[in-house]
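Render this sequence as a predicted structure.
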Amino acid sequence: MDRFVVAVDGPSGSGKSTVSRRLAGALGARYLDTGAMYRAVTWAVLRAGIDPYDADAVAKVAGDVRLTIAVDPDRPAVSVDGTPVDREIRGPEVTAAVSAVAAVPAVRRILVAQQRQIIADADRIVVEGRDIGGVVAPDAELKVYLTASSAARAHRRSAEQAADPRATAAELARRVDEVVARLLALVGAGR
């Protein structure tokens, strides 16, 4: 198979990044961390002093900012307007605000379009994040939903961020509740 897309979905802390990077390396494929793109826009929003709950202002930042994301699985990197932000986007301020930014429909439209272009430009690519198999790359040759127990996810995430596992578990539970509410709203909207 010359060209392929592998879509890896799953909740935060399930090991998507580790599995996806390793898989891309083993397959000689490119690697796209879509969550890093949302985090980069969130960093830009916070840097500009914008309230992450101000949808119009957030959408403007997302439309104006120039994201560059490296697709080498051995050297993933993200920059915003030429500034490397790999460490900054994993910090607690961005983590606390990324859900609000990602919930803005205009941000999702902008980033999904960029993600689809990156996918189209790659012969072989492993794409990880949320809504990858259903929204970003619905025609992917392989779709994987990776999960882990709540305890394993909290342990993994707190180790990454040097945080208290109980606080991390509470944050992950809050994010799951947000996803469930979003899904229920979508189901209700379809009636």
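Summary. Residues 165-189 form the longest helix (25 residues). The domain at 4-147 is CATH 3.40.50.300 (Rossmann fold).
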